[in-house]
Automatic annotation (TrEMBL):
The keyword Chloroplast does not apply. InterPro entries: Nitroreductase, Nitroreductase-like. It holds the Pfam family Nitroreductase. This is Nitroreductase family protein.
Amino acid sequence: MIAAKTAATAVPLHPLLAERWSPRGFDRTHVLSDDALTALLEAARWAPSANNSQPWRFLPARRGETTFDRLHAALVEGNQTWAVTASALLLVAAQTVDDAGRARPWALYDAGQAVASLVMQAQHHGLAAHQMGGFDPTAITAAFGLDPSVQPVVVLALGRLDPTAALPSPLAAREHAPRTRMPLDDLLLPPTPALTTAA
């Protein structure tokens, strides 16, 4: 069994944040319901974005569907080994150029906000989400005929945690390892002294 991975924080956080982590061991029998999938996508849809541009685009695929197999084939080998048991894979992309040809400089940031909302909604439903940057964006663009303005950002594995899932080494050790983060002080930028002009 996997021990609780509640974050050790300087002050208490909401349990949805403190208890969230990214497992690789998924229940291969779990089916993601229509209602649950819709709730996740709705949470992402209502995320904030620059000028309410809503540049995120989603391609959901449940295990057993052809789309799932095509997304899975675009993952790097290390992710393929465990993501195959997820209930669903979800491609998140960002429209980096709008319909008028203008650049959307904050599209990737906004897509990240949508994913964060989706992940918290998944946690609320008792579901696990593992975000993957290890995939071939060129292969995904070709496989699904994505417009050049639509940039693949991340693929999520979604499902229900299986604490007993068999994982290859060293992934099994990482599954059981405690969560860690850099100290908060190391993440703070030092203040820059105000520049003065000599009289």
